[in-house]
Structure to design on (481 residues):
C-alpha cells in the first residue's frame, strides 16, 4: 500500500509546531508495519539543506511565474522525502507562513495551491512513475489537494485529510479562483466557498474521502457550534466519515535513557537522573538551586488559545507557595511581557526564555517536576506526551487530546494508583489556581508524587496503536466491502 503524505512541515527539516512532529514520526511507524510511505514537502531552505542523498526527481515547467523541480532525498531520521524546489515561492527565511512582523505572507494562497496541485499530480502518477493508493493531506496548507484529485476525476486514489488545528483555515479572497486552476463551479456553498472567500480548510473537509483529527474528544468537539469554528455543521454532516486518532511521539527522539540533550539519562527503574536534570535546568534558567521545591514548566506558544494569559496571572501564587517556573516559548506580546515581568520580579524563582530551542525543550521536560498546558482547546497536544515520557506531571485543561491522554488525579484514580496528571475546567484563574494548589498538595506527599511520576513515564505515548488505526483506515477506504 503506497501512501503519499502531504504537509507543509516535518521534523527535523522544518518545524513551527506539533504538525512537524507528527509528519516526522507517523510515516516511519507505518513503514514498520509494511507500508510504503513518501512525504511531500514545500522546498523551504531548511528542507532542501537537510536532505541527504538529494537527487533531481522531476523538472516542472513554469509554475506560478517561475521554474521549479522536485527533488528526492532522505531526512536524517530515514524518512523518504520529495520536495517542491520552487525558489520564487518557498525561498523564505523565518516562519514559513508569516513575515517578520507576524503578517501572513501575501503569496500564501498561490504557493500552497501550487503545492497541493503538484501533490495531486504526484499521487495520480502524472508526475513521476508511481501511482499512490492514498493521498493523506494535513491542515489547510494542503486542503486543496483533495479538490484537485476530485477535479481530475480520480476515483481509485483515496484521500484522507487530517485536521491538526481547525483555528487556522486558509481563507482567501474569491478572486484567487482565477489563479488556482480549479473549476469555477467548485466555488459554491457546498464546495470551496466560505463567507464569500475560498477556504482551503473547507476544501479538505468537503472533498476528502475521510477526515481525521488528532484525538477522539476533539473529533466530537468540532462537530458543535462552539468547537467547530464555523465548520461545526459541515463536520457533523460528515460524522460518518470523521474519526479521531490520537497522535503519538517518536520514542527514539524522546527517550530519557538516551537523550543527548539532557544532563543525565534516567528511566522509571532508575529515576535518580531526573534530579540531576532538575539541577541542570535550574542552573540553565538562572534559578535558585533547590532539590525539594516543585519546579513547574511551560513549553508553548504564548497565546490565549494555550491559556497562558491565565497562567501569567498566577505566577505569584506559584512563587509564594514555594515553587519555581521555567518557561520557553513565544507569542502574543502582552503575554510575553507578563512572564518577563514575573521573571524580573522573582529572578531566582522564575526563568523565561522567549523563542524556541529544541535542546532546551528536552532539558525542561527532563528537569521539571510538572508542566502547564492550560489550553482553552487542544486538538491533541504533544507537550503532555513528551512530559509524561520524561516523568513530568502534566497540569492541563480538560479538553481535546489532553482529556484523552491524561488520567486526572481524582480521588478514585489516586486510590487505584493510576493517575498521570491533573486536569481542570473551565479555563479560568479560579480553576487553574485550584489545580496549582492540588499540585502542591500532591508534591508534598512524596509517595503519591513518585507513583504519579512512575505512571506517567510508563504510560504508552508512542505511535504503535495509532499507526495501526491509520493502516486499518486506509485499508477500509481501499476495500470498503
Amino acid at each position: 500500500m503506497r501512501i503519499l503524505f502531504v504537509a507543509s512541515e516535518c521534523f527535523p527539516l522544518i518545524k513551527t509546531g506539533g504538525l512537524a512532529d507528527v509528519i516526522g514520526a507517523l510515516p516511519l511507524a507505518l513503514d514498520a508495519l509494511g507500508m510504503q510511505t513518501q512525504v511531500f514537502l514545500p522546498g523551504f531552505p531548511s528542507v532542501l539543506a537537510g536532505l541527504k542523498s538529494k537527487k533531481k526527481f522531476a523538472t516542472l515547467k513554469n509554475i506560478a511565474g517561475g521554474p521549479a523541480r522536485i527533488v528526492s532525498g532522505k531526512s536524517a531520521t530515514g524518512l523518504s522525502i520529495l520536495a517542491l524546489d520552487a525558489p520564487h515561492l518557498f525561498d523564505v527565511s523565518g516562519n514559513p507562513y508569516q513575515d517578520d512582523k507576524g503578517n501572513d505572507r501575501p503569496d500564501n494562497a498561490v504557493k500552497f495551491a501550487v503545492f497541493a496541485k503538484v501533490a495531486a499530480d504526484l499521487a495520480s502518477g502524472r508526475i513521476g512513475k508511481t501511482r499512490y493508493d492514498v493521498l493523506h493531506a494535513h491542515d489547510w496548507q494542503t486542503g486543496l489537494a483533495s479538490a484537485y484529485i476530485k477535479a481530475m476525476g480520480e476515483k481509485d486514489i483515496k484521500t484522507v485529510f487530517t485536521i491538526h488545528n481547525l483555528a487556522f483555515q486558509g481563507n482567501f479572497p474569491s478572486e484567487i479562483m482565477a489563479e488556482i486552476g480549479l473549476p469555477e463551479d467548485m466555488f459554491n456553498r457546498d464546495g470551496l466557498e466560505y463567507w464569500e472567500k475560498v477556504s482551503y480548510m473547507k476544501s479538505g473537509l468537503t472533498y476528502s474521502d475521510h477526515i481525521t483529527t488528532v484525538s477522539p474528544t476533539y473529533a466530537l468537539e468540532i462537530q458543535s457550534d462552539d468547537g467547530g469554528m464555523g465548520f461545526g455543521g459541515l463536520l457533523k454532516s460528515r460524522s460518518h466519515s470523521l474519526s479521531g486518532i490520537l497522535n503519538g511521539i517518536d520514542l527514539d527522539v524522546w527517550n530519557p535513557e538516551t537523550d543527548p540533550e539532557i544532563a543525565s539519562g534516567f528511566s522509571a527503574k532508575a529515576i535518580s537522573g531526573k534530579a540531576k536534570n532538575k539541577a541542570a535546568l535550574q542552573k540553565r534558567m538562572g534559578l535558585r538551586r533547590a532539590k525539594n521545591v516543585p519546579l513547574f514548566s511551560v513549553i508553548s506558544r504564548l497565546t490565549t488559545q494555550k491559556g497562558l494569559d491565565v497562567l501569567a496571572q498566577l505566577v505569584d501564587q506559584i512563587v509564594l507557595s514555594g515553587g519555581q517556573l521555567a518557561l520557553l516559548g513565544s507569542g502574543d506580546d502582552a503575554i510575553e511581557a507578563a512572564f518577563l515581568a514575573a521573571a524580573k520580579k522573582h529572578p531566582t524563582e522564575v526563568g523565561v526564555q522567549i523563542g524556541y530551542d529544541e535542546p532546551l525543550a528536552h532539558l525542561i521536560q527532563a528537569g521539571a517536576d510538572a508542566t502547564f498546558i492550560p489550553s482553552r482547546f487542544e486538538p491533541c497536544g504533544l507537550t503532555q506526551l513528551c512530559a509524561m515520557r520524561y516523568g513530568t506531571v502534566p497540569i492541563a485543561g480538560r479538553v481535546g487530546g489532553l482529556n484523552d491522554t491524561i488520567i486526572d488525579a481524582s480521588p478514585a484514580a489516586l486510590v487505584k494508583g493510576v493517575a498521570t496528571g491533573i486536569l481542570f475546567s473551565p479555563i479560568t484563574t479560579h480553576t487553574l489556581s485550584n489545580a496549582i494548589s492540588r499540585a502542591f498538595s500532591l508534591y508534598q506527599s512524596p509517595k503519591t508524587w513518585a507513583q504519579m511520576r512512575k505512571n506517567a513515564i510508563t504510560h504508552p505515548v508512542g505511535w504503535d496503536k495509532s499507526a495501526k488505526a491509520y493502516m486499518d483506515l486506509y485499508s477500509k477506504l481501499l476495500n470498503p466491502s
